[in-house]
Amino acid sequence: MPKAIKPVIVILLAVAVAAGAAVFLSRQPDQPVPSSAAAPLPANIKTGGHFRGPGNAELTLVEFGDYQCPSCAAYHPFVKEILNRYPNQVRLEFHHFPLISIHPNSMAASKAAEAAGEQGHYWEMHDALFEYQRQWADSPDPKPVFAAIANRIGINGTILVQTMDSPALQQRILKDVEQGDQAKIQAVPTFFIKGQQVYLKASIEDFVQVVEANLHK
Amino acid sequence: MKLRPILIAILAFIGMIDALFLSIKRNAGPIPCHVTHGCTDVLTSKYSVVAGIPLSWLGLAFYVTVFSLAIFSVFDDPKNDSELPLRAIFYFSGVGLIISALLVGIQAFILKAFCEYCLLSAALVLSIFLLSPHQVRHTVPQ
């Protein structure tokens, strides 16, 4: 047997074992201990939040999100695609959950979305904030960027920035945060369906699978 | 007994599992941390990809290479006692250490979020680097 065969066999075996171990670990529940998993949504979750889709939709996908969170932006197209695929059956309920300790502009972004909502364009700004996240996420002063984005999508940017300072908007956002805290949310985005947290992969196939499993249930 | 290459191989094996795990989890939903805070943010940030290639894949290539070199060193004929695999690990892990330091810096100062799996990888690279030079230093060139 050639001398090089032994190490090659060991290397191949090790790679195979490592792959098996990684697959096994990746299939374990994300939360290390049950107590740290997101709790069922509190009964008063019906207060607050923004709704997108028909009021009589069979399924409501509740999302707690942070506009500055890269993974929220990554999930956003799949959420929109689900709403497009199930226009009469699914609606989105979005709650702010800005992680201000790691995303310094997230609260301002939530305020910008709320301020756009005051002009009747919440969802347009919601989409734009995720779509243009890289333009404002690292900005030391994101307000001018929010104004520019607002102008680009047909919202008055000057009024939007002025409205952002309204204490009422902040209260609305903090109410969402309070609900997220009650639900023990640990990561964003976190999704709930029928009061229970659902783990969604960032793929349209997984979203469809989860939605189909919960429709007509 | 060739203790150093065996230890390096064990560390690289752990690194392989870590990198493979991250490659699988990267697009599989939020990744809550157990020790640190912000795993998903780090792993989905713009710094997690270089030229379209996820860093976890590059990490995997690094660990497979180091593991292979270490195993070849373990199986090397004692009469030959070639320094080449360990020397390669030394330089290779040196580059890895610089990249790891940069990535830890990005987590600390730019993202302000830490990924425990990435920190584990940085610790593994540091350990591999510290284990590799001893034998290189003590090998007399033929």
In the predicted model, the low-confidence regions of chain B spanning at least 5 consecutive residues are none
The CATH homologous superfamily of the largest domain in chain A = Glutaredoxin
Task: Kindly provide the radius of gyration of chain A, computed on alpha-carbon positions and rounded to a whole number of angstroms.
Answer: 21 Å
Q: What's the level 1 CATH class of the largest domain in chain A?
A: Alpha Beta
Determine the fraction of residues in helical runs of chain A and give it as a percent range: 40-55%
Give the averaged pLDDT of chain A, no decimals: 87
Beta-strand share of residues of chain B: under 5%
Q: Roughly what fraction of the amino acids of chain A lie in strands?
A: 5-15%
Structural class of chain B: mainly alpha
Shape field of chain A: globular
Report how far apart the termini of chain A are: 61 Å
Q: How many structural units, i.e. domains of chain A?
A: 2
Q: How would you sum up this structure, described in words?
A:
By secondary structure, chain A is an alpha+beta fold. Chain A has 2 domains: 5-30; 36-214, 3-Layer(aba) Sandwich (Glutaredoxin). Chain A has helices at 5-26, 70-85, 106-118, 122-131, 133-136, 143-152, 157-164, 167-182, 204-214, and strands at 50-52, 59-65, 90-96, 190-193, 196-198. Chain A has a 5-stranded mixed sheet with strand order 1-3-2-4-5. In chain A, strand 2 (59-65), helix 2 (70-85) and strand 3 (90-96) form a beta-alpha-beta unit. The N and C termini of chain A lie far apart (61 Å). Residues 30-37 of chain A have low confidence and may be disordered. Chain B has helices at 3-25, 39-43, 55-74, 84-111, 116-131, 133-137, and strands at residues 49-50, 53-54. The model of chain B has no long low-confidence stretch (mean pLDDT 84).
